[in-house]
C-alpha cells in the first residue's frame, strides 16, 4: 500500500472583518468569486444563499474541486474552505487577498493533505 496525495484542503478563519461589507452579501460574494477566479482556479458553477436577517453562504464548484465562504456579519467572521487537486498551485496569495478584501485583522489557516491509501490503480 502507498499513500497517494490527491488534494489539499485549506480551512481559513477570518476574524474582525469589515462588517459593513459582510452585510452586503451580494457584493461580498462577488469579491470572493473574483478573487478565486483571478487566482488561477477554474469556476464551473456557483451557488449562493442569504440568511435572514443576515449572513450568507456562497460556494464555487471548481474544475479543481471547490471553494466556499460562510459569513457571520454580526461577528465580523468568515469561514472559508478551499479544496484543490491542483497540487502545484500556491494558495497563499489567494488567502492573503481574501484577508485584505474582507479587512480581516486575524487570519488562521489550517492545511490538510487529502490522501488515499492505494495499491494498484483499477482502470474501469
TrEMBL record:
The active site is at 65 (schiff-base intermediate with substrate), 70 (proton acceptor), 85 (proton donor). Is synthesized initially as an inactive proenzyme. Formation of the active enzyme involves a self-maturation process in which the active site pyruvoyl group is generated from an internal serine residue via an autocatalytic post-translational modification. Two non-identical subunits are generated from the proenzyme in this reaction, and the pyruvate is formed at the N-terminus of the alpha chain, which is derived from the carboxyl end of the proenzyme. The record marks 64-65 as: Cleavage (non-hydrolytic). The keyword Cell cycle does not apply. Binds 1 pyruvoyl group covalently per subunit. Pathway: Amine and polyamine biosynthesis; S-adenosylmethioninamine biosynthesis; S-adenosylmethioninamine from S-adenosyl-L-methionine: step 1/1. It catalyses: S-adenosyl-L-methionine + H(+) = S-adenosyl 3-(methylsulfanyl)propylamine + CO2. Its cofactor is pyruvate. GO terms for cellular component: cytosol. Keywords: Autocatalytic cleavage, Decarboxylase, Lyase, Polyamine biosynthesis, Pyruvate, S-adenosyl-L-methionine, Schiff base, Spermidine biosynthesis, Zymogen. GO terms for biological process: spermidine biosynthetic process. Its EC number is 4.1.1.50. Belongs to the prokaryotic AdoMetDC family. Type 1 subfamily. Heterotetramer of two alpha and two beta chains arranged as a dimer of alpha/beta heterodimers. NCBIfam families: SAM_DCase_Bsu. This is S-adenosylmethionine decarboxylase proenzyme. It comes from Bellilinea caldifistulae. The lineage of its organism: Bacteria, Bacillati, Chloroflexota, Anaerolineae, Anaerolineales.
